[in-house]
Amino acid sequence: MDDYGEICHNSAMPKKVYGNYLPNYDMTHRVAVLDKELCQPKKCGLECIKYCPVNKSGADCITLDDITKKARIDEDVCNGCGICVKVCPFDAITIVNLASELASEKIHQFGPNSFRLYKLPTPKKGEVVGLLGRNGMGKSTVVNILSGSLKPNLGQYENPPEWDEILKHYGGTELKAHFEKIRQQQIKTSIKPQQVHHIAQAFDGTGKDLVDMYDERGVASSLVRDLGLENSMEQNLGELSGGELQRIAITAAVSKDAEFYFFDEPSSYNDVFQRTNVARVIRGLAEIGKSVMVVEHDLTLLDFLSDYIEVLYGEPTAYGIVSSALSTKVGINVFLDGYLPNENVRFRDKKFSFDVSSSSDDFQQGSKVVSYPKLEKRYATFHASMEPGAVRKGEVLGIMGANALGKTTMMKMIAGVEKPDAGKIDKKIKIAYKPQYLQNDIDVEVVSLLGKANEGPIEGSQEEEQILEPLKIKKLYNKSLKNLSGGELQKVAVATCLLQKADMYALDEPSAFLDVEDRIAVAKFLQKFVRSFGRSAVVIDHDLQLMDLISDSIVIFEGEPGLSGRATSPLPKSEAMNRFLKSLDMSFRRDERSLRPRVNKSASRLDKEQKGSGRFYYKN
Ligand code: SF4
Q1: Using alpha carbons only, what angle is made at residue 400 by residues 397 and 403, rounded to the nearest 5 degrees?
Q2: DSSP 527-579
Q3: 3-state secondary structure 169-232
Q4: Cα(523)–Cα(508) distance, rounded to whole angstroms?
Q5: pLDDT band at 169 (very low <50, low <70, confident <90, very high)
Q6: Which of 49, 60, 84, 97 has most ligand 1 atoms within 8 Å of its beta carbon, as the pocket-test mutant?
Q7: Which of 340, 405, 484, 518 is the most exposed place for a label (fewest CB within 10 A)?
Q8: Is the pLDDT of residue 50 over 90?
């Protein structure tokens, strides 16, 4: 709650509900949301009901619902004071006071004290609209509404409106025509869902079987080539890697003949080369006049892909508001600033900055945790070699390169888990490892999982203050692992790794399923963690901005995926990034305002100039 609603600039700004700032409640309407999994009336002593001042005055503001046996808050009676938020021991309640004008812009609400969405993004013919925002802000609701699978109820969940009323609500807007088509069932949509492994669970067949079912445009075979899937199509979906499954799902979605296309996180599991190819395929749809919308948390990819950005802001799982359409550059900067100038709304109290000094080459200065000579590893059909190097105290060593070049093998050899065929590491160090694929099929409370990793109770411990508070995990303590979202699960997995007593922390794709805010927060935290506590970390990731932000030095993997991989020694960041971007034929500059690295448009003046002088990575 504290990240939101600190300073009120105007209308849509959520006003602080407790503390020093006292909002003018007359000008606001209440959003009271209850997390039903966290609300446990049998365990809490009903503090919210006891302390609510409106209840004390004799009215029924918070009551215990007869049917659900959970708290129920009457939003018309609630004065928004936020006392219940403070007294609830399980953090189950969110209260936000939103400007009253917003009430008429409510698009959908699922039920009493549940998530609601305000405003909608507008699909644009022949353009890619990028949706940028935190997880839990309603992107699935947006997709379901715009694709016609969810009829918007304008917030009237008890008595949902008919289409006539909905169309009247959208009179004079671009969305009216879109809804007319949905009403007449004339719109054809194609959606690439976020969780691609669900496709493998639901479909029993090969990649080819799946793609053939959708290939209405007759483009599947060229897409299979463009996305490097030639050797994957005959395999059953259940046998494919996450990256292959992702690209097959994209191939199927693009092959369908639709008017409106939606891609939910198309980057996950793909390496940078594959991400670039995916971006080109998706852009190809806009170039033939289709309306495309993309949710993506890899800012480099979003920047590369989008013609416009619409920012989704609010309070995760409580409410989401969609901004007006902005140019890609402005949209990303606005998101990082946490301030929408057109609407005069501050939606985050801090800016995310990309400090130029963070990319300076403070190269390899700490004492060595482990050093290694030239190493080699051979399998029947794969060969990996690594130039000598060292991992140092207080350092994050980044590992970058295409998939299937032996990055995980390298991690394991450094840690002494895997024995090299040539070269020897004298010292065996203790490594804590966060794998790429996370398991969530266990019904165990987050707090007990964390306690196990910590080898002792976590509540009230020093580790709780040092690791779990900065990563904002305390709210998840009483949730079951199997009910966590992808982003929540990733943060819990990172925390579980860092809680272990180890010499080195190895994190394989920590950005997967995290939203942009969490990616930046985790990157900054990890850097602080290794520096402050004299630890060291090795991070494999394909998000270029994250790697740019997090790494002190970088190992680059080159070679032929699946056949052979060669790793460099750890290189200074600028040299490594330059080498890597050159292999991608991409050049980066810094955005003059936010200082974030941006991809130069291919063949632009800057792109040509930088490539001509061999500076693929921007100058500081
Ligand atoms: Fe009662 Fe509303 Fe205050 Fe909560 S925010 S204590 S429900 S008046």
Answers
A1: 135
A2: HHHHHHTT-EEEEE---HHHHHHH-SEEEEEEEETTTEEEEPPPEEHHHHHHH
A3: HCCCCHHHHHHHHHHCCCCCEEEECCCCHHHHHHCCCEHHHHHHHHCCCCCHHHHHHHCCCCCC
A4: 13
A5: very high
A6: 84
A7: 484
A8: yes
Output the pLDDT for position 591: 82
Distance between Cα 346 and ligand 1 center (Å): 24
Helix intervals (H) in 469-532: 486-499, 516-532
Q: What is the distance between the terminal CA atoms of the chain, rounded to a whole angstrom?
A: 36
Angstrom distances, CA of residue 492 to CA of 39, 40, 487? 21, 22, 9
Q: State which amino acid sits at residue 463.
A: E
Q: Pocket residues for ligand 1 (CB within 6 Å)? A: 52-54, 61-62, 73, 78-84, 95
55 CA closest ligand 1 atom index = 1
Mutate to test the pocket of ligand 1, among 73, 86, 97 (most ligand atoms within 8 A of CB): 73
Query: 275: part of which helix (H) or strand (E)?
Result: helix 272-287
Write the residue with the smallest CA distance to atom 1 of ligand 1.
52
Contacts of 159 (CB under 8 A, 6+ apart): none
CA of 61 to the centre of ligand 1 (A): 7
Q: How far is CA 129 from CA 256, 298, 344, 511, in A?
A: 19, 15, 22, 22
Residue type, 41: P
Asked if pLDDT for residue 16 goes beyond 60, the answer is: no
491: pLDDT confidence band, cut at 50, 70 and 90?
Answer: very high
